[in-house]
């Protein structure tokens, strides 16, 4: 078969639907990556317009451009759009587009999940934009501290948009994180060991795991605050046993890792682009891997440094001050590795390199002011001033936006398949760079002169006037620069001449394909033995196009790719991807109805939409796999492999495992919140603690034995035993709820409801999955009979059992200790 | 997966130890639980907990220095050892306040 005929045959199998229908039905990572990037840029532009309005208001003292109500919405939505709807989705879009291409595979692990996440992002983002246009946008700051954001401080619907809209959008982040993690670990070109992975993949892996463990505390906080606002469950009301500081802990448990979730992908882009610009290999690959992993984990030990002024004891402050200074070390390791790479190579000053230099200058300043605010006495002075505003913009714009602009100009030939023409881009660079520093450098001084954050206006005579007028003028210079970038991209996409493959002469696999990329990425999958396969074998793209790699024969007429062993890269099994479908978009729309019902308090819609989501999920899973065993199939290069339906660890198992990591972090955060209130909150103990008693304990114990045990018995009665065990656990959990009939009475009762509600939800999921598996077995699905699906269900049953038992113990513990007169019990 | 777990284990252990000592500090300084320990023993408990965290980190570093039965990729092994040493230094540095700062002030 010639390369052209192979291309046509593969395109017939992999192509998205033509025209506008393709936008709704595509499950291709290339399409969805581009769509993510486009929508993220839309939100960036919207957030940027809000920033201009903010600077217009603050240009002069006693400005009456907008009133305080509108101003509160402006600065809140600026932060919300930039952090939640631009930065994270832009990373997701870039990773979704690039990762399979860099790893030498044909798509991400779960293509329909990619599409579902995208549509959740679009619908959730639309909800936020609607609130802005309707003048009812969130107005309590992007961090939504209660009691400002609770019904006491914000009785309108504004805060609900934040809590519900952002939670909806976070479905997208969690979905992307699960599939990026599984993709990096399993969906690589055969032969690609961990140490041969492109450095960008390491950064994506670390970032994805950080999203899985960083976002759940925020989702929990949002759930708790919305429960308080909608149903009066007093988690943050001091008078009823709650504590507003709990929100700050939950928020910053997310919020500080979030900074690194934003920075690390940018660092990944730099580590990829910089060696190509310097025409050498990356110096210190192992050190950079270690630095990115340590940054990822260290960032979870810093959250309290956002709370230095809340009255925490000195020793607690010292812990987090020390950890905050420590984090500069792995950051510096990366920067020295990049400088070393430049030193060793022969750098070319193309536009991506200019942006990297801008990153160095800006991010290092932001990092150094970060070390300053890590020092407690300085932070006490600078907290909530414009010094912090300037610092965070240096870190986020310098550490994310500038590297992303480098990435835009580096991969633009890949996106559009045209030869880059950079004249306008260079002008835009100078406007943005000077505009940015002109805006924010002097704002450090304004902060040191005492200018507070979030003020809608200021009086003359405090020494802030000149700084603010300069900042406002320069911010418009920066905005003109960004507008030029947009025009530049459009011009390049429309009028630039067709480009050649691999214009930068890069070594990674993303350039081993024609551009723009074909729907299938690689006509055949490469066998990889080094980090820069194209430098080692420049003829590789032609060989792949000739079908000399794996899966080069499209005879089976379906979307196939390979998985590998995580460490060694040895090929394991074939995965058959789904075809184009509008199903994910429909399911995201129904998910949106669930959130809309909560937002508008049309509560009858909520269970209906939830049932719809469950029905969709069951339909989704039912369509997976086949009823006909295929055995080992040839994949090329003399290798034969089974399909995912016939193995014990199918992709779904890996996806479930990492979803449960996020779920477990959510639950761990809930237990932390409970312990925090019990330890710190005033107005404890509650009027009474629940004492489940011996019968409920016995019922729960029986359920905890039979539910998981039944899953492990390979006989039909095992299903019955497991179902009975799950039901027993559910009855016991409901029994505990009856002991605290009024969740609005005290934070303890409210927490108990959430703990047991969480357990009941997971028991219901486990029950549904158990029955679903039985139905699949009866229908003769190979994956249900081969054991892979049973392992997935076992995972969920074990987890549901564990959390219900732990919730029951946590609910009953105060009562037990109370009877022993321990822990301030009544 | 064991390579990934070995790589991420040491620094995750640091996070666990760090959070545990911070949590213990919170308990000891709370009006509700602090009364359960004898006066003056709070700091001693914190120092013991910090030393235990540092010792665990040292033991993990020593264990990871031994050759892995499955045979490690040299790059990943190097990164693992860098991370284990980093985690040990991080433990000492971030838990040092138990000995040098005021306790519950």
From TrEMBL, chain A:
Bilayer-spanning residue ranges: 35-54, 74-98, 118-137, 161-187, 199-225, 259-278, 285-305, 317-342, 354-376, 388-412, 424-449, 469-495, 573-596, 602-622, 657-681, 693-710, 717-740, 752-775, 796-817
One GO MF term: heme binding
Domain of life according to the entry: Bacteria
Chief localization: membrane
GO biological process: electron transport coupled proton transport; oxidative phosphorylation; respiratory electron transport chain
CC annotations in GO: plasma membrane
Keyword Membrane: yes
Family statement: Belongs to the heme-copper respiratory oxidase family.
Name of the featured protein: cytochrome-c oxidase
From TrEMBL, chain B:
Annotated transmembrane regions: 12-33, 45-64, 76-96
Keywords: Membrane, Transmembrane, Transmembrane helix
Top-level lineage group: Bacteria
Protein name per its UniProtKB record: Uncharacterized protein
Organism (species): Mesobaculum littorinae
Entry annotated with the keyword Transmembrane helix: yes
């Amino acid at each position: 078969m010639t390369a052209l005929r192979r291309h046509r045959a593969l395109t017939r199998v992999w192509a998205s639907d033509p025209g506008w229908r393709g936008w709704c039905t595509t499950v291709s990572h290339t399409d969805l990556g581009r769509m993510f990037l486009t929508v993220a840029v839309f939100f960036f532009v919207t957030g940027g317009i809000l920033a201009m309005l903010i600077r217009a208001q603050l240009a002069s003292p006693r400005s009456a451009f907008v009133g305080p109500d509108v101003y509160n919405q402006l600065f809140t939505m600026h932060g919300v759009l930039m952090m939640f709807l631009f930065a994270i989705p832009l990373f997701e879009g870039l990773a979704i587009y690039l990762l399979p291409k860099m790893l030498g595979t044909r798509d991400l692990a779960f293509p329909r999940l990619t599409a579902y996440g995208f549509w959740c992002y679009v619908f959730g983002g639309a909800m936020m934009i609607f609130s802005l246009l309707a003048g009812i946008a969130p107005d309590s700051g992007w961090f939504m501290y209660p009691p400002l954001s609770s019904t006491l401080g914000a009785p309108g619907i504004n805060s609900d948009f934040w809590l519900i809209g952002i939670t909806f959008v976070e479905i997208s982040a969690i979905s992307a994180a699960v599939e990026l993690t599984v993709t990096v670990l399993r969906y690589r070109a055969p032969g690609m060991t961990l140490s041969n992975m492109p450095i960008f993949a390491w950064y994506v892996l670390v970032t994805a795991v950080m999203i899985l463990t960083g976002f759940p505390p925020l989702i929990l906080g949002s759930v708790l605050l919305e429960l308080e606002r909608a149903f009066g469950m007093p988690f943050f009301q001091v008078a009823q046993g709650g504590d507003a500081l709990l929100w700050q802990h939950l928020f910053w448990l997310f919020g500080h890792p979030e900074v690194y979730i934003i920075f690390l992908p940018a660092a990944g882009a730099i580590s990829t682009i910089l060696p190509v610009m310097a025409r050498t290999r990356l110096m210190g690959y192992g050190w950079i891997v270690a630095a990115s992993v340590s940054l990822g984990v260290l960032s979870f030990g810093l959250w309290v440094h956002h709370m230095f002024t809340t009255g925490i004891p000195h020793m607690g402050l010292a812990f987090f001050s020390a950890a905050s200074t420590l984090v500069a070390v792995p950051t510096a390791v990366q920067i020295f590795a990049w400088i070393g790479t430049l030193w060793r190579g022969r750098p070319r000053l193309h536009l991506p390199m200019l942006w990297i230099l801008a990153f160095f200058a800006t991010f290092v300043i932001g990092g150094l002011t970060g070390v300053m605010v890590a020092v407690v006495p300085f932070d006490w002075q600078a907290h909530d001033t414009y010094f912090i505003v300037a610092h965070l913009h240096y870190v986020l714009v310098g550490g994310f936006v500038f590297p992303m602009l480098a990435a835009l100009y580096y991969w633009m030939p890949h996106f559009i398949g045209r030869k880059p023409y950079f004249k306008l881009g260079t002008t835009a660079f100078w406007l943005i760079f000077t505009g940015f520093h002109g805006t924010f450098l002097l704002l450090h001084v304004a902060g040191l002169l005492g200018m507070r954050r979030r003020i809608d206006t200021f009086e003359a005579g405090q020494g802030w006037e000149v700084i603010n007028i300069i900042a406002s003028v320069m911010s418009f210079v920066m905005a003109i620069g960004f507008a030029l970038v947009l025009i530049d991209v459009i011009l390049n996409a429309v009028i630039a001449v067709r480009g050649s493959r691999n214009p930068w002469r890069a070594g990674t696999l993303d350039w081993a394909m024609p551009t723009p990329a074909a729907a299938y990425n690689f006509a055949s999958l490469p066998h990889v033995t080094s980090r820069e396969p194209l430098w080692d074998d420049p003829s590789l793209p032609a060989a792949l196009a000739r079908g000399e790699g794996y899966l080069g024969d499209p005879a089976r007429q379906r979307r196939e790719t390979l998985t590998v062993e995580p460490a060694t890269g040895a090929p394991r099994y074939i995965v058959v991807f789904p075809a184009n479908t509008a199903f994910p978009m429909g399911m995201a729309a129904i998910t949106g109805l669930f959130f809309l019902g909560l937002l508008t308090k049309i509560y009858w819609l909520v269970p209906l939409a939830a049932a719809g989501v469950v029905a969709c999920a069951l339909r989704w899973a039912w369509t997976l796999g086949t009823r006909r065993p295929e055995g080992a199939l040839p994949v090329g290069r003399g290798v034969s492999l089974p399909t995912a339906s016939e193995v014990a660890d199918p992709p779904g198992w890996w996806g479930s495992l990492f979803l449960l990591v996020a779920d477990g972090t959510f639950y761990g955060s809930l237990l932390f919140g409970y312990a925090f209130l019990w330890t710190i909150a005033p107005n404890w103990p509650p009027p009474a603690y629940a004492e489940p008693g011996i019968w409920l304990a016995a019922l729960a114990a029986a359920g905890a034995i039979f539910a998981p045990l039944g899953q492990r018995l390979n006989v039909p009665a095992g299903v019955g035993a497991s179902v009975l065990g799950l039901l027993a656990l559910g009855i016991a959990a409901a029994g505990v709820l009856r002991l605290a009939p009024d969740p609005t009475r005290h934070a303890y009762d409210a927490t108990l409801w959430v703990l047991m509600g969480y357990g009941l939800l997971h028991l219901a999921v486990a029950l549904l999955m158990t029955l679903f598996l039985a139905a699949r077995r009866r229908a003769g699905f190979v994956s249900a009979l081969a054991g892979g699906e049973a392992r997935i269900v076992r995972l969920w049953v074990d987890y549901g059992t564990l959390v219900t038992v732990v919730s029951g113990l946590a609910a009953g513990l105060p009562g037990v200790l109370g009877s022993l007169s321990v822990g301030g019990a009544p | 997966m064991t390579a990934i777990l070995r790589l991420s284990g040491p620094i995750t252990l640091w996070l666990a130890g760090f959070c545990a000592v911070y949590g213990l500090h919170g308990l000891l300084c709370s009006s509700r639980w602090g009364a359960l320990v004898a006066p003056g023993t709070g700091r001693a408990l914190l120092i013991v907990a910090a030393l235990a965290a540092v010792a665990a980190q040292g033991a993990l570093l020593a264990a990871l220095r031994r050759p892995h039965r499955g045979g490690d990729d040299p790059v990943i092994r190097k990164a693992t050892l860098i991370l284990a040493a980093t985690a040990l230094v991080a433990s000492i540095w971030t838990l040092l306040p138990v000995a040098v700062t005021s306790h519950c002030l």
